[in-house]
């Protein structure tokens, strides 16, 4: 008697381009443990899904590859006209920690702003 195993789902690979401080502010999710980034997506993602991100970050010449998990979902027609998409929790590794530190440094002057973001 053999049991059929559930098919292994390969992580989605998504490019995320955050080319300005306004875009970075709107995408940054400081309330997630370790930080996170929101990305617009029409794909059907579930909490806990693994996502591979190729991040183009401000004026950095190199793209940053990250692996994270879906920790937030904005459905279509979300409250407050927020875009459909997912929030990805940054990985708890040196790359994720360094990126979090860099983002918090860049956004320090506006991090407590009342401006809405893509999530809150």
Question: In brief, what are we looking at here?
Answer:
By secondary structure, the chain is an alpha+beta fold. The protein has two helices and five strands; from the N terminus they run βαββββα.
Structure description:
With 120 residues, the chain is of the alpha+beta class. It has one domain: Thrombin, subunit H, CATH 2.40.10.220. It contains two helices and five strands; from the N terminus they run E-H-E-E-E-E-H. It has a five-stranded mixed beta sheet with strand order 1-3-4-5-2. The longest helix has 14 residues, at 94-107. The protein is globular and about 55 Å long.
List segments where confidence is low: pLDDT < 50 over at least 5 consecutive residues: none
Determine the mean pLDDT.
Answer: 85
Shape: globular
Distance between the termini: 50 Å
- Main sheet makeup: 5 strands, mixed
In total, how many beta strands? 5
**CATH superfamily annotation:** predicted glycosyltransferase like domains
Radius of gyration: 15 Å
Please indicate the count of domains: 1
Content-based structural category: alpha+beta
Following the backbone from N to C, one meets helices and strands in this order, namely EHEEEEH
Tell me the helix content: 10-25%
């Amino acid at each position: 008697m053999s049991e059929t195993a559930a098919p292994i789902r390969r992580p989605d690979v998504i490019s995320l381009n955050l080319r300005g401080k306004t875009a970075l502010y709107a995408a940054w999710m400081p309330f997630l443990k370790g930080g996170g980034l929101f990305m617009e997506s029409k794909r059907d993602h579930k909490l806990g899904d693994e996502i591979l991100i190729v991040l183009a970050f401000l004026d950095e010449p190199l793209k940053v590859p990250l692996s994270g998990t879906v920790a937030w979902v904005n459905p279509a027609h979300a409250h407050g006209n927020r875009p459909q998409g997912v929030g990805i929790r940054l990985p708890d590794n040196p790359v994720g920690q360094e990126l979090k530190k860099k983002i918090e440094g860049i956004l320090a002057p506006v991090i407590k702003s009342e401006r809405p973001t893509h999530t809150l």
